[in-house]
Design a protein that fits this description.
heterodimer, A: 298 residues, mainly alpha, MetI-like fold, B: 571 residues, alpha/beta, Rossmann fold, 2 domains, six-stranded mixed sheet, 21 helices, 20 strands
Chain lengths: 298, 571
């Protein structure tokens, strides 16, 4: 009996809106230096005279500063654009790094089994028994203690990516390991073994493409988590420094002025963070439903 | 049983449609008629996709959406079925119609004991009390011939063997005294010895209780064994219908003739199975070019390709303490045999006898516990030389999982060719892949597609082409045709024979089907519980079997010719 080809159905409206929002944000992030009215990293481009100006729609607003300025006179639109850029880069970096690590370790553990599997998965078990935030605080603390302030400034994004990824890879490793164990028992993998192909090639060329769909789904869902973790760390002061702020750092700065009436310094970046994470989550949930055969509807 | 009795099943002009996503409809069943009288076993035969299972599902109200009955009528014991709901007024599925499904491993709920599975229906439909239901359940277990029925009532499905489970399923189907039983491939998942017992049980039920049986099957031997009448289906339509004897001995329709001719006979060995040949000039040319390339292996001459001595394989669940095994299962217990150059050596036995483990061990997928495997003068260890791995290839049982779904066919076939540097560049390897595809009877452009575009038989051809790529000297075939329809099986068996001749190939051929083994093999080893009980030339083994177990297997294997000639002598 011929299997009917599934009709391509459009995703729900919420997912399309989320996709549109995400696309706009990515464009903003990519072209931030061109779009932003000023460069917040350049001290000479702003002055303390402009400090604490409210958004343009409020009394005392200044048309030069659409969303107002912060306590140092930096244009909020510009700092948010650059902050968004840092948040997205760290989020993507953490996801890529943890996915790469997790996929490789999961493939190896699932393919070879036995002692290799035992060692990798026990390390994973130990790592996830630390809360992600605790682990990240620990690592950034160690990095702070070991590196000089200038080096730390340059290395802050890398340290953040590493401290987020060190816990997140476990999820990829577990999923990929389980999927690999299923594939290894299938005849095409056994055929590749009998043909005599080396293990690396069997894993890379034959098994990997067949386990990738679940990795993509986890990656999307984890992207939102990674961005939030970064924001949390920066909010706690263990992330990006105020001179090179991410969205989390901006919220931390704004938090100090929240009750002195300068609400926009905290709320504007927070709103952007919420929209970003929401958009990513909506898309992630959609992908999970779409690629999970157990949830698939006819 | 008289012809005037109300038929237990009367299907007229039944038509079942499946609307497809692209707006068209697939007609799974096209206007079929079917009549079953009390005590009659009616076999519904056809290849996969013929619609035979759909008929069974339709009358039990089990059609899966979006499939629906569009026209025709079904009457169960004289009561018409409501076509919209699939239900019949006054007929309760499970009470008046019993069902036996193919896989006894999954048709029982693993969390219920035999007693609760059996009593559930009795209490619900017949309103019996617990104690009455239990007494009736015990009676049923006795009737289906389960040893120690009192003890078995308390057993869970996993504590029973496959044959016992199928008996419990039959007991469940019988529980409420149905007038009709729908048995969908009831013995396909079982070994021949168990199959024979189950078939006998179904026959007795029909004879003694006057139950009508709709037997859905693809196995002509089973039909010959127990069916009174047979209907052959193709693409949803009835091709031929009549008494089993008439249809099997003198089929009128061309398709029926092909289908029956494709069944490999167990009594005689044919040069080729009589199915329409798919060979074209292209195929023959491709094969000639492969023959030229394989000249070198023919030069190796006579002698042994493979020599297995005292091979033993144990599976143990490893305990936490290294070096200690918690429990050991001895899958293969000291097996020795040789495969001569150019011969097809058969390993035959029932499920769990260790034949597949032997194949996997030789292929290097399983590490032996003890014993030696000598392949073309090299004793195989844990690490195998490149040349050894190249010369030893394998074809697997399930064509649906044997091909990587994410690789184009060309890449899949070219990969080993490139890996063993049998082609100097990718273009040349692709050319070789095309030749191999032609040689196994597929169009050369098949390689640009993915595996899901092909049927089971075509996939198995692709798997064979891939195995031939590295120019092996020994090909291990593990049940290569048992997942396929009988006409496809016949074509593939012919193909394997042709390839053996042209590539100077030796084969280790594993099967549970004695008829297939007889058609294919030069010498045969019969395995039972991890040991070889008899090893002989094919003709000797089939004409003068020495071991009791071999004789038993031969006696139980359903065979068209034997049954028909026996019936002929009796009448």
């Amino acid at each position: 009996m011929a299997t009917p080809s599934p009709k391509r159905r459009l995703p729900p409206v919420s997912v399309m809106i989320a996709g549109l929002v995400l696309a706009v944000m990515l464009v903003l992030v990519l072209f931030a230096p061109l779009i932003a009215p000023m460069d917040p990293r350049d001290v000479s481009s702003y002055s303390l005279i402009d400090m604490e100006i409210p958004p343009v729609f409020m009394d005392g607003g200044d048309p030069r500063f659409l969303l107002g300025t912060d306590n140092q006179g930096r244009d909020l639109v510009s700092v948010i654009l650059f902050g968004l850029r840092i948040s997205v880069v760290i989020g993507l970096g953490a996801v890529l790094f943890s996915a790469a690590l997790g996929v490789v370790l999961g493939l190896v553990a699932g393919f070879f089994g036995g002692i290799v599997d035992g060692v990798v998965m026990r390390i994973a078990d130990v790592l996830v028994s630390f809360p992600t935030i605790l682990m990240a605080l620990l690592i950034s603390g160690i990095a702070r203690a070991q590196l000089s302030a200038d080096t730390m400034l340059a290395w802050a994004p890398i340290v953040l990516i590493f401290s987020i990824a060190i816990n997140e890879w476990v999820q990829y490793a577990r999923t990929v390991r389980a999927a690999t164990m299923v594939e290894v028992a299938r005849d095409y993998v056994r055929a590749a073994k009998v043909i005599g192909l080396p293990s690396g090639r069997i894993m890379g060329r034959h098994i990997l493409p067949n386990v990738m769909s679940s990795v993509m789904v986890i990656a999307t869902i984890n992207l939102a988590g990674a961005i939030l973790t970064e924001a949390t760390l920066s909010f706690l002061g263990a992330g990006m420094p105020p001179t090179y702020p991410s969205l989390g750092t901006l919220i931390r700065i704004g938090n100090q002025f929240l009750f002195s009436g300068l609400w926009w310094i905290a709320v504007m970046p927070a709103a952007v963070l919420v929209i970003l994470v929401l958009a990513v989550n909506v898309i992630g949930d959609y992908l999970r439903d779409r690629f999970n055969p157990k949830l698939m509807v006819n | 049983m008289s012809d005037t009795a109300t038929p237990v099943l009367d299907i007229r002009q039944l038509r079942v449609d499946y609307p497809l996503a692209d707006g068209s409809t697939l007609t799974a069943v096209k206007d079929i008629d079917l009549l079953i009288r009390p005590g009659e076993i009616h076999a519904l035969v056809g290849e996969s996709g013929a619609g035979k299972t759909t008929v069974g599902n339709a009358l039990m109200g089990l059609l899966q959406a979006p499939g629906k009955i569009v026209s025709g009528s079904i009457e169960i014991a004289g009561k018409p079925i409501d076509l919209r709901t699939g239900r019949t007024e006054g007929i309760v599925p499970g009470r008046d119609v019993g069902a036996i499904f193919q896989d006894p491993m999954t048709s029982l709920n693993p969390l219920f004991t035999v007693e609760s599975q059996l009593c559930e229906g009795l209490i619900a439909h017949l309103k019996l009390s617990r104690a009455e239901a239990r007494a009736r359940a015990l009676e049923l277990l006795k009737a289906v011939g389960i040893p120690e029925p009192e003890r078995r009532l308390g057993s869970y499905p996993h504590q029973l063997s496959g044959g016992q489970r199928q008996r419990v399923v039959i007991a469940t189907a019988l529980a409420c005294g149905p007038q009709l039983i729908v048995a969908d491939e009831p013995t396909t998942a079982l070994d021949v010895s168990v199959q024979a017992q189950i078939l006998k049980l179904i026959r007795n039920l029909a004879d003694e209780r006057g139950v009508g049986v709709l037997l859905v099957t693809h196995n002509m031997g089973v039909v010959a064994e127990i069916a009174d009448r047979v209907t052959i289906m193709q693409n949803g339509a009835v091709v031929e219908s009549g008494s089993a004897r008439e249809v099997l001995t003198a089929p009128k329709a061309a398709y029926a003739r092909t289908l029956i001719a494709a069944v490999p006979p167990i009594e005689t060995r044919l040069e080729r199975l009589p199915v329409p040949s798919e060979e074209t000039q292209v195929t023959l040319d491709a094969r000639a070019s492969i023959r030229d390339k394989n000249r070198r292996s023919e030069a190796a001459g006579e002698g042994l390709v493979l020599s297995v001595r005292d091979l033993a394989v144990e599976y143990g669940s490893r305990s936490l303490v290294p070096g200690r095994k918690a429990s050991v299962f001895r899958a293969v217990k000291g097996v020795s045999f040789d495969v001569r150059r150019g011969e097809i050596f058969g390993l035959v036995g029932e499920s769990g006898c260790g034949k597949t483990t032997v194949a996997n061990t030789i292929a290097g997928l399983v590490t032996p516990t003890s014993g030696t495997i000598d392949f073309q003068g090299t004793v195989l260890g844990a690490k195998r030389e490149r040349s050894v791995r190249q010369s030893l290839q394998m074809v697997f049982q399930d064509p649906y999982s044997a091909l990587n779904p994410r690789l184009r066919i060309n890449s899949a076939i070219a990969e080993p060719i490139l890996f063993y540097k049998l082609a100097s560049n990718a273009e040349e390897a692709r050319q070789d892949a095309r030749t191999l595809l032609e040689a196994v009877g597929l169009p050369a452009d098949a390689g640009t597609r993915f595996s899901h575009a092909f049927s089971g038989g075509q996939r198995q051809r692709i798997a064979i082409a891939r195995a031939l790529g590295p120019r092996p000297s020994l090909l291990i075939c593990d049940e290569p045709t048992s997942a396929l329809d009988v006409s496809v099986q016949a074509q593939l068996l012919n193909l394997l024979k042709d390839l053996r001749d042209l590539a100077g190939l030796s084969m280790l051929f594993i099967s549970h089907d004695l008829a297939v083994i007889r058609q294919m093999c030069d010498r045969i080893a019969v395995m039972k519980a991890g040991e070889i009980v008899e090893l002989a030339d094919t003709e000797t083994l089939f004409t003068a079997p020495k071991h009791d177990y071999t004789r038993e297997l031969l006696r139980l294997a359903p065979s068209l010719d034997r049954i028909l000639s026996r019936q002929g002598a009796g009448q």
